[in-house]
Design brief:
- A hairpin with a 7-residue loop joins strand 4 and strand 5.
- The chain has two domains: 58 residues; 94 residues, 2-Layer Sandwich (Alpha-Beta Plaits).
- The longest helix has 52 residues.
- The N and C termini lie far apart (86 Å).
- Helix 4 packs antiparallel against helix 5.
- It has five helices and five strands; from the N terminus they run ααααβββαββ.
- Strands 1, 2, 3, 4 and 5 form a five-stranded antiparallel β-sheet that branches.
- The chain has 178 residues and is of the alpha+beta class.
- Helix content is 56%, strand content 23%.
């Protein structure tokens, strides 16, 4: 018996070889592309896992530090008993500190209490106007780790009414334990 390849004319054989070669070339290109994508994905996954492993090792090495920090948080961070009262108390404290630093507080707005996985927060949006050194002093005195008060967002620009003063748009929050 003769094979189908032997029954073909010379031109048909050349055409079959060319078509077969093109098919194999395309198949190899697609296969190599797929293989390289998989290798890249696995390398990226390995890099991510290696970074996570290193982070866990660092945390494990500093286990005593983090346990002491957690114990300090349990004892020092206040509990939220009344969100409404907490917002008013925070606003009063901010206004007193602003007055001490010669800042004018405008448009204060108490936001509803928010709950996250690690803490609850009561925040206030406000505008404060004053000299640049007074604004910096206010922000430094406001954010003490022991008070759990943070500036969540801040925008500072020159006061359009007085070029010697700064106008700050602040979102100030106090964090409470769950």
């Amino acid at each position: 018996m003769s094979s189908p390849f032997e029954k073909m004319s010379a031109r048909e054989r050349v055409l079959a070889i060319v078509v077969g070669s093109i098919f194999l070339l395309i198949f190899n290109v697609v296969g190599i592309k797929f293989f390289l994508k998989q290798v890249t994905a696995y390398r990226q996954q390995l890099s991510t896992q290696a970074s996570a492993w290193q982070a866990q090792q660092i945390l494990l090495e500093k286990k005593d530090f983090w346990q002491k920090r957690a114990a300090w948080l349990q004892t020092a961070q206040p509990k939220l008993t009344s969100p409404e009262r907490a917002g008013s108390e925070l606003l009063d404290a901010i206004q007193a500190l602003a007055a001490k630093n010669h800042l004018t507080v405008q448009n204060p707005a108490i936001n509803p209490a928010m709950k996250t996985a690690n803490y609850q927060s009561v925040s206030i949006n406000l505008e404060a106007t004053g000299l640049w050194p007074d604004t910096i002093s206010f922000l430094q005195q406001l954010q003490k780790p022991s008070d759990f008060v943070v500036v969540e967002s801040a925008g500072v620009k020159i006061d359009p009414n007085d070029n010697t003063k700064m106008q700050s748009e602040l979102k100030i929050a106090k964090w409470y334990a769950l």
